[in-house]
From TrEMBL:
Membrane topology, from the record: Peripheral membrane protein
The keyword Cytoplasm appears for this protein: no
Subunit structure comment from the entry: Homodimer. Forms a membrane-associated complex with FtsX.
ABC transporter domain ranges (all copies): 2-228
Main location: membrane
Stated family: Belongs to the ABC transporter superfamily.
One GO MF term attached to the UniProt entry: ATP binding
Compartments, as annotated in UniProt: Cell membrane
Task performed by this protein: Part of the ABC transporter FtsEX involved in cellular division.
Full protein name: Cell division ATP-binding protein FtsE
Organism: Priestia koreensis
Length: 228
């Protein structure tokens, strides 16, 4: 479970990005984070995987108080969280296989186990035939599939995605959403910041709307709610 209590975040330049957020997200939920540009969506998400620290308040992710976590413990904490970005963030000199295996090699898994798991997740995202390709030999949608495979290879309880379809065409975006839906159906919590009105209004999930660093709407099966 993820729980934020009275979370505030002021950046060093004085910008108050988050102004008092209280929220609970239960294991297995799928929630969209929506809101205008600059509302605080990315900051909200970054605090959950400790890319940013809150200025005040508590953030509990799977029993870990993220706000108080020592920097040296952050890499271990992140093994239980998958993160997917708009711009994929793949390692350009590593193959598809190596990009996905990287996270498992870091925890010194047995080589045979690594191979089996990497092939399993690449199969799940439909990319088993591209294991030897480099990221720049792939389409944007394929690169995003690799990044999703990488995010789930450690079997995290939570996958956090910041605008995962932001660089993709509509058809590819639907395919990516289908993968997230399948991951969610295995019991993984998905938290996704998005500007994609059509997706939010079609694949109905919990919608948490953020404006000026506050939650202004939280609906079980909400809609996007903003004019495009
Ligand atoms: N590292 C930073 N230092 C200072 N201010 C920041 C930093 N990152 C974000 N901000 C500011 O914090 C506020 C919230 O930004 P954030 O990126 O969280 O919004 P967002 O809702 O994700 O926006 P978008 O939809 O455009 O990605 C904005 O005013 C932004 O300029």
């Amino acid at each position: 479970m993820i729980e934020m209590k009275d979370v505030h975040k002021t950046y060093p330049n004085g910008v108050k990005a988050i102004n008092g957020i209280d929220v609970k997200i239960h294991q297995g939920e799928f929630a969209y984070i929506v809101g205008p540009s600059g509302a605080g969506k990315s900051t909200f998400i970054k605090m959950m995987y400790r890319e940013e620290k809150p200025s005040t308040g508590t953030i509990n992710v799977n029993g870990v108080n993220v706000a108080k976590l020592k920097s040296s413990r952050v890499p271990i904490f992140r093994r239980n969280i998958g993160v997917v970005f708009q711009d994929f963030k793949l390692l350009p000199k590593l193959t598809v296989y190596e990009n996905v295996a990287f996270a498992l090699e870091a925890i010194e898994e047995h080589p045979e186990k690594i191979k089996a798991r990497v092939l399993e997740v690449l199969d799940l995202v439909g990319l088993k035939h591209k294991i030897r390709s480099l990221p720049d030999e792939l389409s944007g949608g394929e690169q995003q599939r690799v990044s999703i495979a990488r995010s789930i290879v450690n079997k995290p309880k939570v996958v956090i995605a910041d605008e995962p379809t932001g660089n993709l065409d509509p058809e590819t975006s639907w395919e990516i959403m289908d993968i997230f839906d399948r991951i969610n159906k295995t019991g993984t919590t998905i938290l996704m910041a998005t500007h994609n009105r059509e997706i939010v209004n079609t694949i109905r999930k919990r919608v948490i709307a953020v404006e000026n660093g506050k939650i202004v709407r939280d609906e079980v099966r909400g809609d996007y709610g903003y004019e495009s």
